[in-house]
Write a structure and sequence with these properties.
Phosphatase 2c, domain 1; four-stranded antiparallel beta sheet; five-stranded antiparallel beta sheet; alpha+beta; 227 residues; single chain
Length: 227
């Protein structure tokens, strides 16, 4: 869903099978700089071309960053462009995560919800250090400021990696912050529990979103583990 700015800067790679793996990804171009939509598209293109098997997240993220830098160096108007990037690769029952920024992977199993990524934001650092409460974080003026991204500048990024096991019936969501800032994890769990299929779950989420005020592009990919 396109946010109020009218320029859709998110980009996604819907689930695609590569050999024995399923690969899916989402990227969110930085809204405060020119070319966010270009950066997110370049990042997803590199995932599509290069992520083929487990153990490749480092090289894929570095390739995405290099592609964004090369484009920004060739066009001064794009010098500050950047994007988040979150990838999921599933082989058998093992899911591998690569993540930079504040896009997320949310894992639902029954009535339980688990975060499989960590937001790389200033507010999350304050939360981790006990400086602010979760209530304060929701209203913090810099809650959307990230400290790690794939950008056209020489800034370093922090690649978060993780692995977890999946079970049949698990539902997994990859989302941009415009989506997950509107729907709490417990809301997603409640909708999932009352949905008999993935399509029904997706429809339920869309209905819930229509009752919210959209402040940014909202993108989500829904996956169900079927074996």
């Amino acid at each position: 869903m396109t946010g109020p700015r009218g320029l859709y800067q998110d980009c996604l790679l819907e689930p695609v099978r590569v050999g024995n793996c399923w690969i899916v990804a989402v990227a969110d171009g930085l809204g405060g700089s020119n070319g966010g939509e270009i950066a997110s598209s370049l990042a997803i293109d590199e995932v599509r071309k290069k992520l083929k098997s487990p153990g490749q997240m480092d090289e894929v993220f570095e390739a995405a960053r290099a592609k964004i830098q090369a484009r920004s160096h060739s066009d001064a108007d794009l010098a500050k462009m950047g994007t988040t990037l979150t990838c999921l690769l599933i082989e058998g029952i093992t899911a591998e995560v690569g993540h930079v920024g504040d896009t997320r992977i949310t894992h639902i199993r029954g009535g339980g919800v688990m975060s499989r990524t960590e937001d790389q934001t200033e507010v999350q650092r304050l939360l981790d250090n006990g400086v602010i409460t979760h209530g304060q974080a929701k209203r913090h003026p810099r809650r959307n400021v990230i400290y790690s991204a794939l950008s056209g500048r020489e800034d370093k990024y922090t690649l978060f990696q993780n692995q977890f096991e999946t079970k049949i019936g698990d539902r997994i969501i990859l989302s941009s912050d415009g989506f997950h800032t509107l729907l709490l994890r417990k809301e997603l769990a409640q909708i999932s529990q009352s949905s008999r299929s993935l399509d029904e779950f997706s429809e339920g989420v869309q209905i819930a979103l229509k009752q919210k005020v959209l402040t940014d592009d909202a993108t989500a990919i829904f996956i169900e583990v079927t074996g």
